[in-house]
TrEMBL record, chain A:
InterPro entries hit by this protein: WD40/YVTN_repeat-like_dom_sf, WD40_PAC1, WD40_repeat_CS, WD40_repeat_dom_sf, WD40_rpt
Compartment list: Cytoplasm, Cytoskeleton, Flagellum axoneme; Cytoplasm, Cytoskeleton, Flagellum basal body
Main location: cytoplasm
Keywords: Cell projection, Cilium, Cytoplasm, Cytoskeleton, Flagellum, Repeat, WD repeat
A Pfam family matched in the record: WD40
One annotated GO biological process: axonemal dynein complex assembly
Full protein name: Dynein assembly factor with WD repeat domains 1
Family matches, as SMART domains: WD40
TrEMBL record, chain B:
PANTHER family: ADP-RIBOSYLATION FACTOR-LIKE PROTEIN 2-RELATED
Protein name as it appears in the record: ADP-ribosylation factor-like protein 3
One annotated GO biological process: protein transport
Compartments, record wording: Golgi apparatus
Binding residues for GTP: 23-30, 69, 125-128
Lineage, broadest ranks: Eukaryota, Haptista, Haptophyta, Pavlovophyceae, Pavlovales
Residue positions binding Mg(2+): 30, 47
GO CC term, one of those recorded: Golgi apparatus
């Protein structure tokens, strides 16, 4: 085994080692999930070199430089405010979802007007309109980190794969009996998973555009779907009150996570894939061990339905958004509520951490988004201007740009 | 409302019906919907997209989808036809100039395959205005041809005052229930 080169992964912080083994190139990650600006760099570098046989003693100065770079990235845009950069009269009907590619130079919006549009983040220029769906385009995604393909899921029961550069339709994925409402590329970009109101999820081969398997078992609508970081597990949340963990290569159901007393609204794996969270209409969020399928914590406190849940990029914290107008930040390990985000005057339908894990964005029916300090829970900023409720909000990978999509048919770009 | 609310409104329960409310712009759809939901109707602007509200009537929950009526949005009405239990068609009875236009849009809806057999409630709205056509005159202006296997209810109302709205909804619910009971 011979180390070829180092690669940096900013969020969550990690050093990727590219090495050669028998003429083949492999990559291995040294995850530094607990890295903070206060970390003792010398101790950390010594620990890394001691534990990682690929890194020799002579490489120490190089590793030290990389760690400093990662810390610098964690601190960037810390104190900056977002300002309204552009209003895009994006669609003639309300927007559904929006998403960035990895580099953040492009983003996509889906709409009730049956189209998906590709935008240039820097100029606000409309690059492409992806037309072909016969009904609402509800779920959309880039095949990040590559960003050269887009998948759109529609109420017309189909999903479509597109070339993100040319707008060419690559494949139409047919097979669901009713609306497709959630989807995702696997992290390798080889598989697309779709979840439908027909109670099934399906895995599709991206290259050939054919169905690989149907994930059967839920007894009601599937509304949430995610892959783990490795891409070998898939999570589906359903209105049947359960969440299921599936083995991607075989399509087999490994665990059914039951315990919620209401419909599941949102699900997510943590970065390690060892835990997942489920938010429910029953006002609670549960943390599960994905190996055993056991519930390790039930997070209570909201006075109304939980509509969205999200992990921070490292998985150390999680946030829940509720119809009660508040969001709550919890410590994943202890289950302790660390902050309550109070200020919105309507339900919060979307919540996300920035990639650095320092800020949280909430999108509300009160027509505003708010930016919060993830540590203290203080409201840092109110993003005002939309004239109707906001359905979606997303940070780019650098954490310095936000897009918001609203029922008012516009999309807004905010920068700092 | 949020996107999750949309999905839950798409989903059907036994005690829940999906009702689509269409009609020309400025016919009073949003006003009627807000009036039925017990909300303030003082400041209503043209609907650019849609509104969804749940209205409780006689133990049933009606998920009413109010879709904008402007000409540019009308081609998108068909996005909402699937799994519709009842159609409310709102008419501005005082707008004689557009009686033909509203009749044409209604005729297109009644021809729509996906709305085949769906019960239609015609709201002859704005009866509080003295210039409003009475229901009989409106009915003949609509030039409705015979409708096989479909029940059409005509109900005069005023979305502004709320008069006639509940009555119309109740009739619609009765017909939908009867149709379900007879296994249609």
């Amino acid at each position: 085994m011979k180390l070829k080169r180092f690669l940096l992964r900013y969020y969550p912080p990690g050093i990727l080692l590219e090495y050669e083994q028998g003429n083949e190139l492999h990559t291995k990650a040294v995850d530094l999930l607990t890295l903070t600006p206060d970390t003792d760099v010398e101790v950390l570098v010594n620990t890394i070199v001691r534990h990682e046989p690929l890194i020799s003693e002579q490489r120490k100065p190089q590793v030290r430089k990389l760690v400093y770079k990662l810390i610098e990235k964690l601190e960037s845009n810390e104190a900056q405010n977002f300002y309204l950069f552009k209003i895009l009269r994006a669609h003639i009907l309300p927007l559904t979802n929006c998403a960035f590619n990895k580099s953040g130079d492009r983003f996509i919006t889906g709409s009730y007007d049956r189209t998906c549009k590709v935008w240039n983040t820097m100029t606000g220029e409309e690059m492409l309109t992806l037309e072909g769906h016969k009904n609402v385009v509800y779920a959309i995604a880039f095949n990040n980190p590559f960003g050269d393909k887009i998948v759109t899921g529609s109420f017309d029961k189909t999903a479509k794969l597109w070339n993100a550069e040319t707008g060419e339709l690559l494949h139409t994925l047919r097979g669901h009996a009713t609306e497709i409402v959630c989807l995702s590329f696997d992290p390798h970009g080889a598989i697309v998973a779709t979840g439908s109101m027909d109670s099934t999820a399906k895995l599709w081969d991206v290259e050939r555009g054919v169905e690989l398997c149907t994930l059967i078992g839920h007894t009601a609508e599937i509304v949430s779907l995610n892959f783990n970081t490795e891409g070998d597990r898939c999570l589906t949340g359903s209105f049947d009150h359960t969440t299921k963990i599936w083995d991607v290569p075989t399509g087999r159901c490994l665990h059914t996570l039951s315990g919620h007393r209401g419909e599941i609204s949102s699900t997510q794996f943590d970065f390690s894939g060892e835990l997942c969270i489920t938010g429910s209409i029953d006002r609670t969020c549960k943390v599960w061990n994905t190996m055993t399928g056991q519930c390790v914590n039930t997070l209570r406190g909201h006075n109304d339905e939980i509509l969205d849940v999200a992990f921070s990029c490292t998985g150390a914290r999680l946030v829940t958004a509720s119809a009660d107008g508040t969001a709550r930040v919890y410590n994943t390990m202890t289950g302790a509520c660390q902050a309550i985000l109070i200020g919105h005057e309507g339900e919060i339908s979307k919540v996300a951490f920035n990639p650095q894990g320092t800020k949280i964005i909430t999108a509300s029916s009160d027509r505003t988004c708010r930016i919060w300090d993830a540590q203290s829970g203080d409201c840092l900023q109110v993003l005002e201007g939309h004239t109707d409720e906001i359905f979606s909000a997303a940070f780019n990978y650098e954490g310095d740009t936000i897009i918001t999509g609203s029922k008012d048919n516009t999309c807004r770009i905010w920068k700092c | 409302m949020g996107l999750l609310t949309l999905l839950r409104a798409l989903k059907q329960n036994d005690q829940e019906y999906r009702v689509l409310m269409l009609g020309l712009d400025n016919s009073g759809k949003t006003t009627a919907l807000k009036q039925l939901a017990g909300e303030d109707v003082a400041h209503i602007t043209p609907t650019q997209g849609f509104n969804i509200k749940s209205v409780q009537t006689e133990g049933f929950k009606l998920n009413v989808w109010d879709i904008g009526g402007q000409k540019s949005i009308r081609p998108y009405w068909k996005n909402y036809y699937d799994a519709t239990d009842g159609l409310i068609y709102m008419i501005d009875s005082a707008d004689r100039n557009r009686a033909e236009e509203t009749a044409e849009e209604l005729a297109i809806l009644l021809d729509e395959e996906k709305l085949d057999g769906v019960t239609v409630l015609l709201f002859a709205n704005k009866q509080d205005l003295i210039t409003a056509m009475p229901p009989e005159e409106l009915m003949s202006a609509l030039k409705l041809t015979s409708q096989r296997g479909r029940k059409i209810i005509m109900q005069p109302c005023s979305a502004k005052t709320g008069d006639g709205l509940q009555e119309g909804l109740k009739q619609l619910l009765d017909v939908i229930n009867a149709a379900k009971a007879s296994g249609k």
